[in-house]
Amino acid sequence: MQQGVPSSRSWARSLVVLIPYLWLAAFFLIPFLIVLKISLSQPAVAQPPYAPTFDLTAGWAGFKEFVTNLSVDNYLSLTADRLYLSSYLKSLQVAAVSTLLLLLIGYALAYGMARAPKRIQPILLMLVVLPFWTSFLIRVYAWINILQRDGLLNQVLMALHLVDEPPAWLATDTAIHIGIVYSYLPFMVLPIYAALEKMDDTLLEAAADLGCPPWKTFWLVTVPLSRPGVFAGLLLCFIPIVGEFVIPDLLGGSETLMIGQTLWMEFFTNRDWPLASAVAVVLLLILVVPIVTYQHIERRRLEAGS
Amino acid sequence: MMRRFSWFNLTSVVLGLAFLYLPIAILVIYSFNGSRLVTVWGGWSLRWYAALFADHAMLQAAFTSLGIAVVSASAATVLGTLAAVALVRFGRFPGVVLFSGLTYAPLVMPEVITGLSLLLLFVALDWDRGFWTVTIAHTTLTMCFVTVVVQSRLVTFDRSLEEAAMDLGCPPLKTFLTITLPLIWPAVAAGWMLAFALSLDDLVIASFTTGPGATTLPIRIYSQVRLGVTPEINAICTLLIAGVTLGVIATSLLAKRSQMKQEGLVAIGAVR
Amino acid sequence: MSAELARSKVSGAKRDFAPWNDPNARPLVRFDDVSKRFGAFTAVDHVTVDIHAGEFFALLGPSGCGKTTLLRMLAGFETPSEGRVLLGGEDLSDVPPYRRPVNMMFQSYALFPHLTVAGNIAFGPKQDGVPGGEIETRVAEMLSLVRLEGLERRKPHQLSGGQRQRVALARALVKRPKVLLLDEPLAALDRQLRENTRFELMHLQAKLGLTFIIVTHDREEAMTLASRVAVMDHGRIMQVATPSEIYEQPRSRFVAEFIGDVNLIEGTLAAIEPGRASLDSAAGRLAAAEPGDAKTGQQVWLAVRPEKVLISSGRPDHAANCVGGRVVDVGYLGDVSTYHVRLGSGLMMKATAANLTRMIERPIGPDDEVWLSWPPEAAIVLTR
Known about the structure:
The complex is a heterotrimer of chains A (306), B (272) and C (384).
Chain A: H1 7-39, E1 42-43, E2 50-51, H2 59-69, H3 73-80, H4 82-115, H5 121-133, H6 136-147, H7 152-159, H8 173-197, H9 201-209, H10 214-225, H11 227-242, H12 246-251, H13 259-269, H14 273-305
Antiparallel strand pairs in A: 1-2
Helix pairs in contact in A: 1-14, 3-14, 4-8, 4-11, 5-8, 6-8, 8-11, 9-10, 11-14, 13-14
Chain B: H1 7-30, H2 47-54, H3 56-89, H4 96-108, H5 111-125, H6 131-155, H7 159-167, H8 172-201, H9 204-209, H10 217-227, H11 231-269
Helix pairs in contact in B: 1-11, 2-11, 3-6, 3-8, 3-10, 4-6, 6-8, 7-8, 8-11
Chain C: H1 3-13, E1 29-38, E2 41-51, E3 56-60, H2 67-75, E4 82-87, E5 90-91, E6 102-105, H3 117-127, H4 132-145, H5 161-173, E7 179-183, H6 191-208, E8 211-216, H7 219-225, E9 228-233, E10 236-241, H8 243-248, H9 253-259, E11 263-273, E12 276-281, E13 284-288, E14 299-304, E15 310-312, E16 321-332, E17 336-343, E18 348-354, E19 369-374, E20 379-382
Parallel strand pairs in C: 3-8, 3-9, 6-7, 7-8
Antiparallel strand pairs in C: 1-2, 1-4, 4-5, 9-10, 11-12, 11-14, 12-13, 14-20, 15-19, 16-17, 16-19, 17-18
């Protein structure tokens, strides 16, 4: 903003930056480093359940001993057992399929909202956002109600004589997809709606004036202009879905677990913290490129805005 | 040009909203179901609400969750607003890339990773896990959502108002408190509500970072759900939905009134 | 009171006001070799200019010329990359905007939407810790000064554009700043309101005895309001002078063209005599007033304003400058007509003549052969 300001002002400015910076560094950044460190440790029957522990008082010799005790065994285990590979692959696959479904449904919904009369747009917006404010767990749970063997969906299907036997919806990948699409829909709809809403209507008029039929205008004008919103939505959905835990746990089966479930199991059930940490590190590495891409997009949007 | 709200558009909006609300509607209706089974409609009844209020463990979990949500939302609002101001007003300062990275990453980071890393931090620091560790964890997660909301409001905020205040003798901090904040309060309030809802709702991070005696509501619901669906869950879910809905509606009505006045100002024509 | 009378009353009082000509006068505001860069872009380029107390000073120039940046450096919202800004002899480098005895009226008015009219005006004195009772008096005083009595409790969105402009003015004046800065204050107003407000501003400035610095791209505004005008282009000051000096004695083609319509004829300076200069051009040998520091043989431009060019159907007898051409276009503006004439040499010239009679069919029309003439004193020689 200004250079060469008196020191009292830059002192206040530094504080505004430092307070959140330090908090995030302490509670977001440093924990990642700890995860990395733990992933290189061994499980132990002790409190905490891993070894070696980093003892600051042991001085340089203690540090050297600490480093030599680190090992990449956990990473080797990950590659050795097919379970983990299939878990990662399944997560990526579920995330890809769900994100695609989300794009189709979300775009249609966002487009409809953007074309609605201006007066009711805020109401529509609130209606779409409202479920998001209510509990995520609750909404997944609501689907259990519907999808269970004697649940509502089967009751309807049976009543309409579309099936003879109530099919099992729960514990299938279909249920997971339904649950994910349901929970993440606002994350896809909102960025796309924001991009579409900002679009200048006169561009569409200009295209029509130049001889473009409506469907073509959609592909040549509307879609490219909504691209930033689409990318934001895609990344906002894909990245967290890969690591999803609650939805596959409640709605999915037990044949192949998604990576979030695997991590949970390693941590809580097997009490193998180092292995769980290794799973987390690999997951993070897989997601690093999309995450950095997302941050890049957001920062560019911020700079363009201000 | 009149927006052509075609039949296709109308259908997609109606279907989309129906998809979003149907499960919730069913949930709410069945909380009044006299019968325990989903297949049987036992008439309208409040028995599950009664059972709920007799369930001390559940109520305790609800209070814990509310407490955590209020404290972490408030802390997250302060931190998130500071971060938004830093990002929008201070442009390029040393370390801004890392700072904005740290601010946006929690938005997309899978919760299992965040939860695990925080727990490991607390263990390394040898902190007792419970109410405060969950609060710290929630604050860290939700502050970035507050930042996004406040930042998008700040970006469109008319800087000349702040300059006018300073020109008339108001130092920067006072300007922020007397001019900027009162005019962006709907965004700050929306940020608080968002942080509150996210905290109230979180299962994964709370599971990692909680300790004995600090069971949160989602943890309790989750453990019950694994045992089987009981309508008592429906009851508490309905109450939560009602509470959050009222809160959201109230805030947006208040915000709408003050925003309409400001919008009118913009329309009259502050020429740039 | 008619507009002309008002103008003469005010400028009459200022007829002898010219502190910039006094070598002993100390300026109120001094920009001392000030530059401002934004990355690779230079907004203000080594500007040095003095502004004296009591002046109504105009910074005039096209968009992007740096005039607003210069103003903001005085207000304190930008810091100079080089040079100093001095107020009353004091260097303002370390003084933040909220401690400068300078107030600004923003182009968008920047009224606080959540405060009433009274609240907006009282804002400044409140920051200074002025006691409540006195604030009320000053606010009332200001409201009557800008003629907005009775509107204390209204909020900005309940006011018209002109009313909001006056609140912004009152808010900026209530602290009796040493200098009042106005950033395109009339840009948002319609024509009629603009003219009325111009006179109000002049009255106010004369009555309160303050120093006003105005930024504008509208040359008419600068000419009517200002005691001196600084024409800026690409971050540099091209010329600082009174409106009449700028109009009749521009020192460059840019200033000549910016401040009004002008005919520019390129040529070579042929001879210099006392009181006149001759130059050779594509239109023949032409005579102009004294050339200043131009040397013979130098490439120069003859500048003559259209209203000083006489257009006639027959060739005038004893004219020092006389060129023939054909009328290409006539612009009829009601009070005057502007004739676009293509000379034999291919040059285009403009001549403006007042429509002194009420004839509908004018004697000179398109495609007519005409003669343009002007006395040497009406033209000047420009070297750049």
